[in-house]
Every structure is written in C-alpha cells, then in structure tokens.
Amino acid sequence: MRIAALADLHFSPQSYDRIREAMTRLRDEADLLILAGDLTNLGKPEEMESMLATFMRLRVPIVAVLGNHDLECGKQDELTKMMMAEGVKVLDGSGYERDGVGFAGTKGFIGGFGRGVLTAFGEPEVKAFVQSAINETLKLERAMSMLRTEKRIVVTHYSPVVDTVRGEPEQIYPYLGSSRLAEVIDRHQAVLAVHGHAHHGALEGKTTGGVPVYNVALPLLMARTPPAPYRLFDV
Ligand SMILES: [Fe+2]
Ligand SMILES: [Fe+2]
Question: Using CA atoms, how far apart are residues 60 and 32, in angstroms rounded to an integer?
Fold first, then answer.
C-alpha cells in the first residue's frame, strides 16, 4: 500500500494555493492519505467545511487525527462528525484496517521526552496534566490492540520522540510531544509512526526500539528540496 502523509495544514483556501498544484498528483501516487492533525487553524466548522470540500475532490481515502489547533474552539466533536460524514476515518484512540494495513491513531499530548518526562507529583494541577498525557497513551494502546493486521502504523499529532522535534527551540521541546507514546509504539512494534505539530523539527527519527518516526508537518515538508506537500511510504 502506498501511503501519503501530511500534517499541519492549518487550512485556508489561500494557504492551500501553495500546494494545490502538487496535490493533484496525490491520486496517482498514493492509495491513502494520512492527515496528522491541525487540519484547521482555529478549529472552526467553517474552516473544516472548506478543507473537506477541497480534500474530498482529491478522491483518496483519508485517515486523520485531530491536532491542538482543531480543539481551539471546543468544537472538536462537530468537526469529527463533519469529517466522518464525508467518509474520513477519524482516529481518536481507535483503529482502522484497510487492505491488510492497520492504522492506530490518537492526538497525543505534551509532557516531554526521556528523562525530561513530567511525572505526576505534587499539585493536583500537575497530576491532572500528566493524567492527560497518560490517557492519550492508553488510547493509543487501545487502538493498537484493536488491530489484527501484521503491519500497523501509528498516527499522532504530537511527537512520540525527541529526534523529530530537533530544530525547534530546545526550551519548547516538552510542549511538542511525549515519549510516553513511544513506549506503546515499541511494545506493539509498529512499522512506522507519523506525527506533526513540530513545524520546524526534523524529518526523521527513531524510537528506542528502532521504529522509524516521521514528522510530516507541512512547513517542514515544503522546506525540502524539492518541496512536496506530502511524504510517501510504501508498506
Ligand atoms: Fe500545527
Ligand atoms: Fe499542533
């Protein structure tokens, strides 16, 4: 299966003009498109409506997770319904199988990496925050265990590894992802993981278990030579 992936569209008709031409090749190059969150800029239904109108015309099956920007207006349930009505598989602690390939997805959360992972100690506010990161990890775990396919791909918005956020200011690494997600990826031996959010991170990394991780944030993909609005994987 040929899979295209991108994240961080922050969709507006104006910003889409930059990639419109290149996106016409998608249908010839890929059997499925992954959208790894931040599909909209402010999570407004009207943004989602114009995003969907554009992407449905590409006539490629879409698997998506939401990103933090899609939650900004608190209308994430409405956005999810709009996407599902168009046939988009929105993963939120759930799995989807197609042609022998499984997709496990969740938004993920922040909290840092490796020795820097924030732990649940002290104030209730800190504990609640850490619990949000743990909950996203549990959702990914549930999604992975739902899949019966041998090949499994993990889709999150936040990064599961520090490798792919390098390039961003080091002070904000803890806000770009959580290595708690990588523990699940390794335990279930995904073939690869894709994420976004770190617009100025690095294209590739690995979990400690050796699973390749790809940052498919659009600004990062468009900064390559030659620029291309999606990354292709053959699995
Ligand atoms: Fe983003
Ligand atoms: Fe984001």
Answer: 6
Q: Which strand (E) or helix (H) includes residue 145?
A: helix 124-146
Angle of helix 45-56 relative to helix 76-85, nearest 10 degrees, comes to 20
Nearest ligand, measured from the Cα of 71: 2
- Nearest Cα neighbor of 107 from 76, 82, 84 is 76
Distance 39 CA to ligand 2 centre (A): 9
Short-list 3, 2, 76, 4, CA closest to 38: 76
Tens-place pLDDT, residues 87-141 = 999 999 999 999 999 999 999 999 999 999 999 999 999 999 999 999 999 999 9
SS3 call for 189: coil
Distance, CA of 115 to CA of 176 (rounded, Å): 15
User: 138: exposed, middle or buried (C-beta count within 10 Å: 0-12, 13-18, 19+)?
Assistant: middle
Ion ligand 1, residues whose Cβ is below 5 A away = 8, 38
Nearest ligand to the C-alpha of residue 157? Answer: 2
CB atoms within 10 A of CB 103: 27
Residue 62 Ramachandran class (φ > 0 left, ψ -120 to 50 alpha, else beta)? beta
Please give all residues whose CB falls under 5 A of ion ligand 2, grouped by chain where several chains appear: 38, 67-68, 197
